[in-house]
Amino acid sequence: MKAAIAIEPGKTPVFADFNDPVPHAGEELVAVTASAMGQVTKSRASGTHRTSPGSLPAVVGIDGVGRTQDGRRVYFVSPEEPYGGMAEKAAVNANQCVPLPEDVDDITAAAIAIPGMSSWAALKERAHLISGESVLVNGAAGTSGRLVANR
């Protein structure tokens, strides 16, 4: 399969062939249609993030959107190393695949997932906000801030 591959820390990933992932029990094989290049993905690819791949070469990307073998359209996160989301295929734990609504296109779903989860986690998991409460979003200029401000 074709993939964006980190070959050496600090070097730009290359577009090349990589072995197809083989799903294990409890995993889905996803035909990837979109994957976002966010800050964590960039940092991991450069080898500077605390969760950078332990060995190289490795496929870049922590998440993506695609279709399972039975045709379900899903957002997925955390393919097992050395695989990543920026490839034609990804094998992902079935529990890390989320069905997507048909009115959200693949590119938007891939691009908004990480900032959206950051916004959600800040409000629900950290602040424990409940329906009817208000919050001041100071400097809501980035994607995550704009998502919070619009909810």
List the helices and strands and how they pair.
Blueprint: E1 2-6, E2 14-17, E3 27-34, H1 39-46, E4 58-59, E5 63-68, E6 73-77, E7 89-93, E8 97-99, H2 106-126, H3 143-149
Antiparallel strand pairs: 1-2, 1-4, 3-5, 3-7, 5-6, 6-8
Helix pairs in contact: 2-3
- What is the molecular shape? globular
CATH fold label: Quinone Oxidoreductase, Chain A, domain 1
Fraction of residues in β-strands? 25-35%
**Unreliably modeled segments:** none
Spatial strand order of the main sheet: 7-3-5-6-8
- Termini separation comes to 39 Å
Largest sheet: 5 strands, antiparallel
The tally of beta strands, per DSSP, is 8
State Rg: 17 Å
What's the mean pLDDT score? 85
CATH architecture verdict: Alpha-Beta Complex
CATH superfamily: Medium-chain alcohol dehydrogenases, catalytic domain
Highest CATH level, the class: Alpha Beta
What count of domains describes the coordinates?
A: 1
Tags for this entry?
151 residues; 5-stranded antiparallel β-sheet; 3-stranded antiparallel β-sheet; 8 strands; globular
Structure description:
24% of the residues lie in helices and 25% in strands. It has 151 residues and is α+β, with helices and mostly antiparallel strands. It has one domain (2-149): Quinone Oxidoreductase, Chain A, domain 1 (Alpha-Beta Complex), CATH 3.90.180.10. The strands form two sheets. The chain has a five-stranded antiparallel sheet with strand order 7-3-5-6-8. Helix 2 (106-126) crosses helix 3. The chain is globular, with a radius of gyration of 17 Å.
